[in-house]
C-alpha cells in the first residue's frame, strides 16, 4: 500500500502560473509573487491597458523585452490582462513571443491559463510551434485543459497542438481536465482523438484522476465510453481503490453500480475496503462496499484485515460496522497481532473500548508473545493501559524475552503507565531472561521520572543482570548509539544531531546523579571487570564521567586495563570529532584533539 499521508493518491496539482485568473480552487499561497507584487516599469502600463502611454513609452526607448525578477516580460503581463491591443502594440515593437519566465512559460502558456483567446490568436501565427513545454513539461494545451477553457482548447487543437503531448510525469491534457472535472473539455479532447486509456508514469488513467477528485460527471462519461473499470496503476490500485482512499462516496457508488470488483487486491493485497477502513473520509465508502458484498475478513499480504486498518488509524465507528457485518475480532496478522494489539500500539482508546466491548481477547499473545498491554505501555499510552487493565488478566505474564508489562512501561518512559501497573500489583523486581529489572530498562533509556518512581517504590538499585551490570552501568552507557547514529546519518544534520546528543547526555547525567544519591554503587564491576567509570568513559560521556569519578571509591583495576579504556575513549572522541567537524577531509583541529585528551585525563585521575 502507498503511504497513508496526503489527501489524494493521484498527485495532480493545479499549475502555478505567474499571472493567472484561474477559476479552479487554488490556495492563494500557490500563485506566484508576480500576481501580488506591484508591477514596475512598462509592465505596469501593459496591465493598465493604457495603449497611448504604452506606445509613448516604447517610442521613448523603453525596453520592450525587459524582464522583472520572475523573468516576466511586458508581453507576459499584457496577455495575462487579456489586452489584445497591448499585445499588438508590443509585438509591433518587436516583443519576443518566445520569451520564457523562470518557469519556462511563454506568453502562449499564460494566454492558455488565463483564457486570453484573442491574445493567443495574435501570438500563434508568430510561433514556430504551439507545443513548446514549460519547466514541468506542460504545453499550452495542458494549461488550457486544466483551467477548463474550452475555447482555448479548440483554438490550440485547430492550430496543431499535440493532443497526446505529455509532461514530465507523463500526464496528458486529458488527465488534467479529468482531474479538475471539466467535462466539456474531456469530451472535446476525446472527440479529437485523445487516448482515453493513457497512463502517466505511475499508471494513473484519466479514470483514476477523475475518481480521486470526486469528479462524478467525468467518471460517468468515461464509463459510458467503455473504459476498463478495474484498470490498475503501478501499485495495483484501481479507480475504486483511489476513490475509497479519498472518501469519494458518490464515485464509489457509481463504480460499484458499473460493476467494479469490490474485492480487487492491489500489489500488497489491500482491497478497496482496506482503503476505506483507513481513510479519513471513508466511512460512507466502507458502508457502500460492505453492503455490496465486500469481504470484511479479507487479508493483505502481511495479514492485515480491514479491522486491522481501522485499528491503525483509530476509526472506531467503522470498526463497529465491520464487526456487525461479521468481521473477525481476534484475527491475527503475520506477526500474530490482533486489531486490539494494533489499537493499543497506536493509542486509540475509543477503538480499544469498542473491541473489548465486542469481546476481543485482552490476554491474546501477539508479536514476541506480547499482550496488548505490553504495546500500550511501551508506546506510553496511559489511557489505553487503564482501559486494558480494567479487563483483568495476569499482569506479570512475560513475553518471549521474559519482559513484563512493567518492563515495557519503563522502556516507554511514561510514569503514569508505571504507576497504573504498580497499583495493579505489578512486580517491580521481576527480571527478564537476561536478568534485567524494569529499573534497568528505565536507566538504559534515560527516563528520569520512571527511575525516580521505581526507586521510590522500592526497586533494588544495585540489582545485577546476568552480565553483572547494575542500572547504574546502563545509565552510564545510555547514550551508546550517539556516535553510531551520527556516523550513519548525513553530515548535513551533524549540528542538529550534536545538540540532541548533548541533551541526551544531560539526561543521562541527571539519571546517574539520582541513582548515586540513592546509594547506587559505582564500584560494582560486571563480569568483565568493568565498573561504571569504564562505561561512562567508553561511551564518551564527559559529564557522566565526572559524576561517577567523584563517587568511585574502589580503584583496584590494573594500569593496563585503564590504559586500554583511555585509548578506547580517545579514539572514539577523535573519530567523532573528525566526522562531525570535517566530514569531507577528516582533518582534526587542535581543539578536537585537546578535548579528547582532556577527557582521558579525567579518567586517569581516578586511578
TrEMBL record:
Keywords attached to this entry: ANK repeat, Coiled coil, Repeat
SMART domains the record matches: ANK (SM00248)
Family annotation (PROSITE patterns): ANK_REP_REGION (PS50297), ANK_REPEAT (PS50088)
Species the sequence originates in: Anas platyrhynchos
Segments of this protein annotated with the region Disordered: 15-35
Name recorded for this polypeptide: Serine/threonine-protein phosphatase 6 regulatory ankyrin repeat subunit B
ANK repeats: 70-102, 103-135, 136-168, 169-201, 202-234, 235-267, 268-301, 302-334, 335-361, 368-400, 401-433, 434-466
InterPro entries for the chain: Ankyrin_rpt, Ankyrin_rpt-contain_sf
Coiled coil: 480-507
Source species, domain of life: Eukaryota
